[in-house]
Structures are given as C-alpha cells and as structure tokens.
Task: structure prediction
Amino acid sequence: MSQTATRVYDELRGEILGGRCTPGARLREEELAERFGVSRTPVREALRRLEADGLAVVTPRRGAEVVRWRDEDIAELVELRALLEGQAARRAATGGGVDLVALTELCDRMEEHAGAEGRAADEITRLNLELHRAVHRASGRLLPDLLVRLIDVPVVRRTFHAYSETELRRSFAQHRELIEAIATGDGDWAAAVMHAHIRAAGATLRAGREPDPR
Amino acid sequence: MSQTATRVYDELRGEILGGRCTPGARLREEELAERFGVSRTPVREALRRLEADGLAVVTPRRGAEVVRWRDEDIAELVELRALLEGQAARRAATGGGVDLVALTELCDRMEEHAGAEGRAADEITRLNLELHRAVHRASGRLLPDLLVRLIDVPVVRRTFHAYSETELRRSFAQHRELIEAIATGDGDWAAAVMHAHIRAAGATLRAGREPDPR
DNA sequence: GCGCCTCGTCTTGTACACAAGAATCGGCCG
DNA sequence: CGGCCGATTCTTGTGTACAAGACGAGGCGC
Result:
C-alpha cells in the first residue's frame, strides 16, 4: 500500500471540505495515526500539505488545527475568486485548448440533476467544480495552483446547497454563456461572465449563511 | 537548536532564490541532511515546504528538484502579478492600515543606494521586496499568501540587476506615485500604478534575459 | 484566599532503522 | 552488434524511539 501520506491527506481533506470537521478542531498526530492505522510520519506530511492548501494551521510545537474562516476572509475570498477565475476564463477563451463538448456535457448533467429533486446538491457541486477546473486547466500553469487555495474551501463547497431555484437557474445560464464566450474566443466576455458568476455566488454566501445545517 | 526544519528551509530557499541552485538540480535528502548536519526528517519537511512555495517539484519515489521556469511561465507570472499586486494596492489604498512613513523611508533608502554605484542591486532588491510586502500585508489575509508564489521567484529577484538607469528611475518614481495614491485613498489610482509598475518590470524581463551573469 | 512556582504529563520535533520501489549497469540472447 | 532482461545499488517512504518544549494541575508561600 504505497502513498500512505497521500491517502491520509485525501481523507482529511475530504472531511474538512465536507464540513465534517469543525473549524478550530485540533488535529493530533498520534490520534490520526491510530485512526488511519499508520505511523505519525505520513500523518505529519499530510498535515503540512493541508497547511499549504490553507485548510489547516500548524503552530510550531503546538500542533495543527482546522482553519477558521472569518467573515472578512469570505469577502476577500469572493473578490479574489472573481479576479482570478475571471482571468482564467479570459485566458481559456483566448488561448484555446478547451474541450467545449466536455464542458457542455457537464452543463447537461448538472441541469439533469437539478431536475430530479432528490437533494442532488452534492453531485451538482462536484460537476460544477469539474467545470471550473476545466477552465482553470486551460488557463496556464500557475493560475490553477493559485486557485486551489480559493476553490477548495468548505464554505465554497456548500454554496449550491444554499441556492434558491432562481439562483440555480441563473448559475446554469451563466455556465452556458461562459461556454459560448469561450467558443467565440472573446476573452473580455468570458471574464465578465465569470466575474458576475462568482459575485452572484458571493451574494448568496453573504445573504444566508448556512441555511442548510451540516 | 530548535526549528531545524525551518533553518534548512530558509537556507535552501535562499540558495534557490539567489540563483545559487541551477534549475533542475536534484535535491537528495541524504546529501542535504549531511550538508546541514541534521537527519533526513527535517530535510524532508523543508523540501515539501519548498514544493508548496513552487520552488521545487517533488515526484513520488523519485525525489525533489529545483523548479524549472519556462518562458510562457514568465509571461503568465507577469500577468498574474500585475493583476494581484494591483488588487493588493487597491485594497491597501482603500482599507487603511499602511505605514506611509515607513514606505517613504524605504524609497529614500533605495534611492540612496542607487546613488552610490557600488553594485547595490542586492540591497535595492531587498528594500523593494520589503516595500511590496508592506503593501501586501495591508491588503488582507489571503492575498499575501497567494503573492508569495509569484514574488519569491528567482527570475523576479534578479530584475533590478537588469534595470538600466532610466528604468531604475522610472521604477522609483512609480513607488513614490504609489505611496501618493495610497495616501489619497484612491484605489483605482494605486492599482493602475502598480499594474504599470509590474508590466514595466515584465518588459525588462522579456527584453534582456540575464544580461548580468550569475 | 490568591497568586506564583514547580512538577508531571502530553504533544510535537528529530534521529535512526528498515522496507519498498526506481534507476542503472551488466550480462545474455537473438 | 543491438536490444532485452535481471540483479545490484541507490533513493525515498514508513515505522519506531527518544528528546525537548508546552500546558495544566497541584502545592506552597504570602
């Protein structure tokens, strides 16, 4: 079983992003090691990687804990996402290298899941994330790495759970428009759509923080 | 002697940023451990931190090496710096919390060093970095962390060595203008100055790559 | 009774040892 | 003579033991 550290990392990361870890919770090395059935060494590495991702904070000699998000952090987060995802969309539109068919299919599947009202928010979230990442990948080498720290955040992952029917439809429409802008090669258009898309999500975040518990 | 890992990290980081490590050079754990007189454990941690900073790439089971920068990476780097440092300047101008006196003193000292033509490029680089960081710090909590990956790059650190007399003066003038914009609280002005400041540096980078060997 | 100091425990930091996968060099076969 | 296969060697990944610092509880002095 190779890549023990990566397994622990993925596991913990999933728990934090899924909101199954309460912010501020301590992450003791030995406890985690026992829980995952490994030694402290790979756990340490996993914790450092989480810190690099901005998901945990480790204080020297005092251990690691799940990162705590403050309100002003959320505001800054939305601003930066709007800026950087906008730039990613611009470069994706002008640089080529985007699989428009795959993007369209992601939209189709998202809208299907929205039709079937079986609390498909998790699946929609996953598909949405995949769509955004596809755009990021087409934007270069540095930008995707920067965006990881802004996208993989618990609060962002919960956005779709808070969307109203109207907001959901608007979001889907923006995805379609984004694809059209990219297909046209119009960088400004793509950036503007993405910018609006993110700001709209930010408004939902500000409006009702956690209307859906857990 | 506590914080062994941090010491190794700082040392290696300095070597990479100072250009004393050739890109692509392998970083073997045992070799480094012996060189620093420590065990492999803190060396490992240092290497992972360097990877998180984008200064090294580690391939599982194949070790770490000093990151290699391609030309298109540099172009993307300049774009992103212009965008994000511009945003940092905007927030610094509108948010307050900037020590304008300290910034002005940094400018004074930089210009003094430029007057004394004793190859003071390293010192100017250091002061310039400090000025930029002061602006970053005033911009929030997330942005400074993102900027680390764009600022602490070997190529950026060499910029001042490549500046002509004219470019140097223009750069200093932009610093002064930036401070004025921040003092006025004009976010758009501050962002525009910073944007131009970075783009100008980018032009120098593109024009003469490494006119000053080592 | 309150505050300070000290001792004990707990957790992380580092060193060391072993195991597993990768690269390389040599030999062998076609 | 060239290519392929195997063994050796080298390097990293993981487990374990020990040391050092931090936190808390308890006792002592004022």
